Amino acid sequence: MLPNTIARAPGSLPLLGHARQLTRDPLGFLESQRALGPLVRVNLGPTPAYVLNDPELVQRVLVRDAGSFDKGRLFEKLRDWLGEGLFNSEGATHRARRRMMQPAFHHREITRYCRVMAEEAERVSAGWHDGQIVSLDEEMHELTLGIVARALFSAEVVRSSSREIGESLSVLLPLLARRSLSPLGALEKLPTPAKLRFDREVVRIRAGIGEIIRVYRHDGSDDHADLLTMLLRADDPGAPDGLRDTHIQDEVISVMSAGTDTSAATMSWLFHELARHPEVERKLHEELDAVLTAGPVSYEQTGKLEYTRAVVSETLRMDCPIWITMRRATSTVELGGHRLPAGTQFIISPRTLHRDPTVFPDPLRFDPLRWLAPRQPEPRQRLAYLPFGAGRRKCIGDSFAWYEMVIAVATIARRWRLSLGARTGGRGRTSAVAKPEARPVTVHDRTKSATTAKS
Ligand code: HEM
């Protein structure tokens, strides 16, 4: 017989549900649900949603029974921004889009982007000077935006437009998660200043991308080895140019949104961890000094940077920027011994799963050696480790992100040590992704200041 009680998160308010907790401290709130059970009911305004705390249940939703779920609420609300892009399209449209995009993320293409990744990391950090205080957030955002923009649009002629698109993006991304989780529904349509700003930036970004597509199509510049050229050449059967251009715009926006903040936040967390763990930093520097030669960090060298890769893996575990994704049942489903009707919403938090002490012992200890022989992750840890999701909606940019982060971290850390200034009293921040607290960061030139005090 199926049990009929599901744990409920305490503190729900009429109409608002758990909106207050999800706005004030979403990471702490979701983590606090883990102890309540494998499936915990929370309220998004008046709508119930179920937090999945058990990796087996998560695998069923994302992989085994993926056909019984769509992406649901979080993504519907993104539609007026992302259109029908890969990130939030469903069913046959998603399959067609994934086929259209896949060649651009083929391993062969990624090896070519490695050069861009190294050059952009070099460009951003070359502007630093010993002892300078930088905003790590902004530097990492500029870096990942530069990488994605150059991989997408390699034509020099569009360089200034891609910078403008990046500016719009940095306004839009922080507004996205807030809108998606807001319980206010119809009230969001009111012309508040935030809504007007959002709409204005959406128009601006779409116009910018539309213009770039026109340049590529009509000035014969569609022979660049970049993502946009591949999209322009991709098969989109039966769609006239106008419609294809809208689809391509959707994809460019999807990739720029999904592929910039995520990697930028991960690298910010990583440099925070290095600054807090001098022994990890020292081992990383030893590896970089032993493996790297003069010149840009290359694709081939990444294969030898074993410890650097373990540091990235551990950052994606402990400080996973993906704190929430959602699914919605499209038919009645049975999960964890409960029968739940079509339309039921589910919350999955990779970050919370990665901090489960029953899966990752001592989960708040930053320990890259978890990922290296002789320890290696166990099968249940692999099951629970979902920084890039799983199944048919798994991140299409996972390899891209891996090479990007290893190359960028290696390029920066071989020359620079980053130390943290005084705490601001704040905690980790969330927008569409989880970010570390904003703390002043000082950069130290390793070639000049080998003995600078660590924070
Ligand atoms: C550290 C970096 C990254 C992380 C942690 C990350 C994480 C994720 C996750 C968890 C999903 C699945 C969401 C879900 O199932 O609901 C996803 C999807 C996606 N990601 Fe990433 N991502 C990263 C970097 C990138 C990059 C660099 C790109 C592109 C250049 C990218 C493009 C996408 C796209 C287009 C999707 C939608 C795929 C689909 O639905 O078929 N991501 N990402």
TrEMBL record:
It comes from the Bacteria. InterPro entries: Cyt_P450, Cyt_P450_CS, Cyt_P450_E_grp-I, Cyt_P450_sf, Cytochrome_P450_Monoox. Residues 436-448 have a biased composition (Basic and acidic residues). Residues 423-455 are annotated as: Disordered. Keywords: Heme, Iron, Metal-binding, Monooxygenase, Oxidoreductase. Belongs to the cytochrome P450 family. This is Cytochrome P450.
